[in-house]
Structure formats: structure tokens, C-alpha cells
Amino acid sequence: xxxxxxxxxxxxxxxxxxxxxxxxxxxxxxxxxxxxxxxxxxxxxxxxxxxxxxxxxxxxxxxxxxxxxxxxxxxxxxxxxxxxxxxxxxxxxxxxxxxxxxxxxxxxxxxxxxxxxxxxxxxxxxxxxxxxxxxxxxxxxxxxxxxxxxxxxxxxxxxxxxxxxxxxxxxxxxxxxxxxxxxxxxxxxxxxxxxxxxxxxxxxxxxxxxxxxxxxxxxxxxxxxxxxxxxxxxxxxxxxxxxxxxxxxxxxxxx
Amino acid sequence: xxxxxxxxxxxxxxxxxxxxxxxxxxxxxxxxxxxxxxxxxxxxxxxxxxxxxxxxxxxxxxxxxxxxxxxxxxxxxxxxxxxxxxxxxxxxxxxxxxxxxxxxxxxxxxxxxxxxxxxxxxxxxxxxxxxxxxxxxxxxxxxxxxxxxxxxxxxxxxxxxxxxxxxxxxxxxxxxxxxxxxxxxxxxxxxxxxxxxxxxxxxxxxxxxxxxxxxxxxxxxxxxxxxxxxxxxxxxxxxxxxxxxxxxxxxxxxxxxxxxxxxxxxxxxxxxxxxxxxxxxxxxxxxxxxxxxxxxxxxxxxxxxxxxxxxxxxxxxxxxxxxxxxxxxxxxxxxxxxxxxxxxxxxxxxxxxxxxxxxxxx
Lengths: 255, 362
Description:
The structure holds two protein chains of two kinds.
Chain A: E1 10-25, E2 28-40, E3 43-47, H1 54-61, E4 69-74, E5 77-78, H2 83-92, E6 93-96, H3 108-118, H4 124-137, H5 153-165, E7 171-175, H6 183-198, E8 202-206, H7 210-216, E9 219-224, E10 227-232, H8 234-239, H9 244-253
Parallel strand pairs in A: 3-8, 3-9, 6-7, 7-8
Antiparallel strand pairs in A: 1-2, 1-4, 4-5, 9-10
Helix pairs in contact in A: 3-4, 3-5, 4-5, 5-6
Chain B: H1 2-12, H2 21-29, H3 34-60, H4 68-73, H5 80-84, H6 86-91, H7 100-117, H8 124-142, H9 159-184, H10 189-203, H11 207-221, H12 230-256, H13 259-267, H14 272-287, H15 289-302, H16 314-322, H17 331-360
């Protein structure tokens, strides 16, 4: 659908570099020898069976999970124990969660302005203007004064996306953004994500929405048992999978 | 088509007369089973046996302003014990001619409370208003300025002492308790251990022994010549004690907040204090309003324990009044009066917490 997709990628500008990265939960080896470079403007969809480590992988990128070996470099800053560095990276990396995680005690508008006001130190009036701009964009501006609990799941997830965008991130991470939604609400969220893709946002999306992957992704990654088993452009990935595990997985989800 | 007809017909049909109104309500709630009918009759009989004599005692046969001698011959309640000793019960040993000063302080206090009741005024200015109010109250109480004679804190007694211990006790214990709860959940081992040790130590000790320690043991450790006000020491003991309990309640609230809230706050780049202040605590403290208010209410009542270290709070001034031979037989009436004062305070607190919960519902 997005035909000139590949042209958006800036081949010389890696925004995320993961080098020989490992992670364990106790004795359990969740991520094994991950190597991945994401260019600016690139869109990657990560799929794989549950428990394969795909969520853990993107949660390592903003240090919601800590990796134990290897290096992760985001926006030229290497992730380390230094909390200041971590906060700097988090400011540049937006994240959308499976369960939205909006702040239930704040209005929609306050949910959106909180980050810009306290982290980016933007004046309130300006933050509210930006917030309304993104609310318009996700077509939910009329709900600005409501609380998250009054919105449907699809609306909440669109607000969550707008909340991340208000921080003007360089990268957006999506952790199964449509998995907790009722079927009829999946499309409204995917539409917002497709719009975002058209604007050239760098995106890493953990998702099983194969239609979305086919139309938007530059690259599809298949993970199994903590490893990146196969990666390819969508066409080759879906129609000529190389690895046995990939073939099996695809045959299960594409009926 | 048919079903819509039925609905119209149904809505025009009135319910049977016996299921609405007073009779309907009584049938529904008081006499719906044989056992309930029996219980209803039994309770009505008990009320008949108790209420009329009680009203007679408390109101019709009561003495309101007579002397103790007259009271002893009467069959009703002797409220005179309260009215004749009103000022001593409330103000204790505060100099008689200066007792307008604690009265003014109490009025200021009540005005402050009424003012703070309205959530529209909850901002930074409210803190200044309170600090100002407390300073003014202190000046009135202690004197030494503007031509007011000095009244040492040893003479502060009665209701003003109770209010003071409660007000400072509760307002200092709450933030301290929140900090302790955060400390206990902290990832820094030193802070975490200290918080746990503090909370468990204090919770493992009755308030009375803390008060004893503050009044008897603590001065032994001070270098010679230095004394710390006895009221202040009791105050600190109450704050330390209450804070430990609040800490555990708040910790429960922190655990009730889903991890997704922490993650969303962190993913936005908020630092620890912003995350706690803006996202986690507002939700956690709201969840624990009911148990927190329980603790505050019991702390308010527990201030009466300071009588065992010889401070003259409301309870003690009442006891002193009753030790006067003229009034020695009328403890029931005096304690009912005190109970009403305490009840007023506690009821106001629990009422306020309920309205706060309604306000904060989202």
C-alpha cells in the first residue's frame, strides 16, 4: 500500500543498534544472541509464537527490561545502568502497550500533556495545543475532557498512541497494540498506525496482524525461543519463508 | 409487534397496593418471614423498655445547672457536672482569666478546618494559610507578644492539648508514613532495610510503652542541662507510632497499582519522583482512603493515652473534675460529654473521607 516505503529509509543512519545481546530471567535464557540494526524511518514487524521473547526484545530497548550481555545503542546513546541515560532514551522512544496503560486518574488531555510538561518542560499552553493536534489526528478530540475509563478499548489505544506522539519521539515501539481489543476496534487502531507509517515514523511493532505487516513493514522478523530465526521483506517472508519454524508458524496463522 | 403491545400493557398495570408504600415496605422488610416477624416484635419490645426511661433520665428528670448536692437527690442525669466545670474540663490549668485565648485558637482551628473542607482551595496557598493559622494559634496560646502574658506549655491542657496532639500528630504522621512506604518499596537496600526495621519495630510496640520511653527513658540520654518539652516528646511518640501504621496501609495501596502504570510512566521518561508524585501516589492514596482514615481516627482517640505520662488532656481534666468530692458520683454524665466531643471529631473525619472518595471517583 505504501509504495515508496523503502525510499524513506535513511541507510546511513542507524537509530537502534543491538549487538550480541542476551537476556535471562533467572536461569531461563529469554533472548539469545540478538543482533539487529534499525535504520531511521524503517518499519519492522516482529512476530512469533507466544513466549518467543518478542515483547521482551522491544521492552529492552527502553530499559523496561534489563539485558545482561551485549550492547544496545538507541539514538547514539548506549543503554547502561546510568539512569540519566535511560531517561534520555525513554524521552526519544515512545511506547504503546497491549493494555493501553493510560493514567486513569487524569483526563485524556492531562494524559497527553503530562510527559511534555514534566519531561520536555514545554509550557502548558503549548503542550495542550500539541495534545489537541494529535487528538484530532487520532480522531478523538471531542473526548479530551473525559477520563480513560469512559472510553472504549479502541479509543483508549488511540489516546495511548497520541500520548506517545506528544513527546515527539524518534522511534515508536508497539507491544501487541491490538491484542487486547475487541475485533471491531482493531481496524481503527491499525488505521492510525498506518497513517503514522505514511509520515515516515520509525516503528517496531510486535503484532500478529499480518495484513498490517504486509502493507506497512519494510522488514518482518520472526522470533522463536528467544532468537531471531528469520527476517525478510514482507513479500518474501510470507510467500517464500526459508526456515521450517517460520513455515509452520505461518501455516498456523494464515489459514 | 405483539411483544411491544405486551410492554405497553405491562407498564400501565399498577403494582399491587400491598407491595408499595408503608405497608408494602414493612411487609417486605420487617415481616417477610416468621423469624423476621418475631425479631421485629422482640426489638420493638426492647426499644419500648429502654428508650422512654433513657429519655426521662437524660432530659426530663435531668439537672442542668444545679450544685452537686442537689444532683445527688435527683433521679435524673446530672449534667451540672459538665456545665459547672465546663471551663476546667476544656481548658484545665490554663489561667482562668486568659482562657479566651485558647477559645480564640479553637475558633481559628475550626475555621481552618471548614475552609480546608472545600477542595477548591486545595493548592499551595492552603499550606501557607495553615502555617499562618498555626503560628497565630501558637502566639495566642503561648503569649509573650503584643502584651499577652506568657503561659508556659506545661499549663496547656484540656481540649486544646488533645487537639494539638491530634492535629500535629496526624499532619506529620501522614507524609512521614508515605515516605516510609516508598522507602520500604525502594530498590536501594539501605533505605529499604531502614524502613522495614523502623516500621516493624514501632508496630511491635504498644503506644503506651512508646510514650513511657519518650517521657522517662529519653531524658536519661540527653546531656545534662538540656530538656525537651514533655508535650513535644509525647507528640513525637504519637507521630512515630501513627506513621508506621500509615506506611503499611500506603504500601498496600502501592501494591494495588498495576505494573503497567509504572511502565507507562517510565516509558514517558518521567523520573522516580515525578512517577511517584504524578502517577502512582495519587492513585494509591485514593485506594487507601478508608483504611487511612481508620488509622487517623484511632490515632485521634489514642491521644488520650498521654494521661499516663501526666499530661492533662481532655480525658485527664475530666478525671480531675470527678475526683472533686462534690462531683464524684457523676462519671457517667461527664464521660458521655467527653464521648460526644470525641464522636464529633471522629464523625467529621469519616464524613469528610466519604465525601472525598465521592469527589475523587473517576
